[in-house]
Write a structure and sequence with these properties.
The protein is an alpha/beta fold. The chain is built from 16 helices and 15 strands. Helix 3 crosses helix 4 and helix 8 runs parallel beside helix 9. It is globular, with a radius of gyration of 22 Å.
Length: 448
Amino acid sequence: MKIVLVQPPNLQRSGDWKKMKVSRPPVNLALLASYLRQFGHEPFIYDFDWFEGNAEEMGRLILAENPEVVGFTCLTPRIEITLAIAAKIKELNPKTKIVIGGAHVNAVREQSLYTSNIDYAIFGEAEEAFVELLKAIKTNNDLGKIRNLIYRKGEKVVMNPIRPFIQNLDELPFPAWDLLNLQDYKDPSNFNGIHMGVMTTRGCPWNCIFCSSGVIWGGKVRFRSAENVSLELQHIVEKLGITNVMFYDDTFTLNKARFLKICSEIVNRKLNLRYYCQLRVDTIDKEIAEGLAKSGCMTAALGIESGDEEILKTLKKGFKKSQAYKAVAALKSAGVPVLASYIIGSPGDTHESIRKTIEFAKELDTNQAKFMICTPFPGTELFRMAVERGILSSSPTPEQCSGITYYQYVAANMSKVSDEELLQYQRDAYSSFRPRSSVPSKTVKKNN
């Protein structure tokens, strides 16, 4: 079957992010496309991330590929535009089947078939369920046996049971990079030139109240082997000519032995990578920091969130400020640039605790810092707290979802200061923090 996989546009960009035209490769779609190819299907990817046209233009471009099925991946702020594109596709060709998946579907499973324009939704891992759905569409087979599928049976919405996760991630094919326009993926704040995304794990064992990872992966972590990861990295360097990589893992250093083996492979294969990764402060020691430095880490992103111990407990971060001090010191000693993220307006935040956070950011003096307004995305514990307090509806409309952002916007204030004060604190934090670029000039130190 011919399938078009779609990343809808991001309509929320502003400030430096918009000026620099930062764009990330949709590796989730490229992975799914590669998996579908194994079963004889013909996938095509439309990445509308930066597309500036309207829903009808996007719908016509999609239909120009003559797909029998169109699959959308969707984050919460993009659900409204996703539904608009789907409506245009159905208007132009009612026979086209439309499937929706991604983080938003996992967060609002029972509500995900918003309109009759959405035929099916897939929650959890999509690979196996999508293949089974395509077979059922082709042969008119019973949909009731397809786990992870949401569909209509008459007027009733049916949500099938969840399927077990894929246990051996090494069995999955590498992404279908040939379906992406690789020249589009740039991030001047972190890389010189284009970059590629790589996912080496699925899941996170922690339960931070603002994060939706557990909704998708169930709080469990599965690892690709160091050998399998190294082969993909080598392919990206040698076949695609790309040495800038962003690891999409929630915590790249979660398994120390595996991480150090990946570092050794990067060095031994002389890949000369420059990469960005996300870490937790309580997974970093001197050996980890040195491994990052030797293998080419040019940005270690840390979610520090708060400079107040009680707020850290509220957020269920599972570490203390002292561990953040040690982690940043270890990374600095090894020469690894650090990006630290902080949250302003967490439940219980006061003027004093917010000021502590801003001062903590200054004290840690990382290369870059992000200050985000506390934002309750559907599916998170934070969202449930906002619903319980009567601040948000348990069933936000697509229009309400499209406005959810953490920059100069307060979706649900559970702090002890006003909305305007939170926004002013965010402005003050950015104006008082002086970033130091981690992007080098044309001369790059080789990791060998």
